[in-house]
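Internal ticket #5521
Category: modeling
Description: The requester needs a full-assembly model to guide mutagenesis choices. All entity lines are attached below as received. Residue total reported by intake: 431.
Assigned to: D.W.
Attached entities:
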Amino acid sequence: MADVPTIRGDLARAVIDPASYADWDNLLDVFDQIRSDTPVVRVMPDEEGVFDPFWLITSYDDVMRISKDNATFLNNPRTVVFSLNEGIEFAKAMTGGSPHMVASLVTFDAPVHMKYRKLTQEWFMPKNLRSVEAEIRSLAEATVQRLVDAGPEADFVPLVSAPYPLHVVMQIMGVPEEDEPRMLMLTQQMFGGQDEDLNQSGMADMTPEQITQLVAGAVADFEKYFAGITAEKRANPTGDVASTIANAMVDGAPLNDRDMMGYYIILAAAGHDTTSASTAGAMLALAQDPEQFARVKADRSLLPGIVEEAIRWTSPVQHFMRTAAQDTELGGQHIAKDDWLMINYVAANHDPAQFDDPRKFDAARSPNRHLAFGAGAHQCLGLHLARLEMRILFETLLDRLDSIELAGEPLRSKSTFVGGLKTLPLRITAS
Ligand code: HEM
């Protein structure tokens, strides 16, 4: 049998080290090198036991195939986000045996997954979203006003791209506005766990156990908060998503606490950090290309292309993990039952076999069948909402802003999972 292609040492560390995701061009170089040498490759730890070896998948076609074959590649058996063993052990201790700190749509497989997904799927369809469009527009207007007031120099991330999608998803879920700062902090602790600026700990170089503890604390606080919301929405259902979840039945019984909390958490968390990253990315692209800014300001039909390209170009969800349900073949490699695989969306969305000049931000890219929302049974539930929010925000920004340029160096967050810009200093002129 041929040797199994393997990476270890520097190259392996570049794939799993949160810091390397802050150095974007270098990261894309790493993925280009790996994809062209060995698109399906085994990643090994320097020291046995630090993390379980996994297959890294970097080509567009292979990531697509795995995403769509939900019978062969499962979400539930192992963690769906890459984790060191120390972190996984801690999660198991916290949950009483499950490696998943939170049980949610992304940790379920068929047939359970679809039963839960169906509970809220309708909510996130374009037809229903039309009913919240006016509310989203008024949030966009207030947000852009804050930016204009803070100008002419302002950081786009804390003023616009972080709070706006949070505001939208909280409104849809029926969470009162005064509780949003707390939700923002908790989400950043959960997803920014690896970045000392975002996790609010002020601690660089935390151990996996410290990170997991921080995440566990955020999960506990989230649970406490949503327990109150559940009681309220059971007593007085108001027709929002939180009321749907609080009163939902699966197989004739209400959701148990862990499943219900997981639902709130996945919606609240997945619903804003991601859109925040693609929104900041779109703004960066426009700030770097004044001609493109002028073109889209004059011709709004270009806007959907900008939104879609920003989502591909930033790929805010950088990876998910899958577990093989049975022996299979992939890219000429034998994948054994229970093997762990990383489907890397950043790498897939920069595969030159699928995208010409993939590092270029090309608003006219067509077709643009990117994988930033995943594919198959778990494809992003909020993709229509994400596009809608971005389109409305940029319509408002383009109405108000006459020019934008960079006023400093944008910085990316250190995270292997959800990542993007954490600062985007801009100089703006507005009318
Ligand atoms: C640009 C913004 C966004 C990006 C890039 C993104 C990306 C993703 C990705 C890659 C997945 C996993 C897909 C797979 O496994 O095939 C996912 C799942 C999910 N997303 Fe998003 N997302 C975004 C915005 C949103 C929003 C606004 C919501 C709103 C509530 C949301 C809710 C969810 C949920 C609930 C899932 C789990 C679906 C399932 O497992 O069935 N996402 N998203």
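Resolution: model delivered.
Comment from assignee: Residues 208-235 form the longest helix (28 residues).
Ticket closed.
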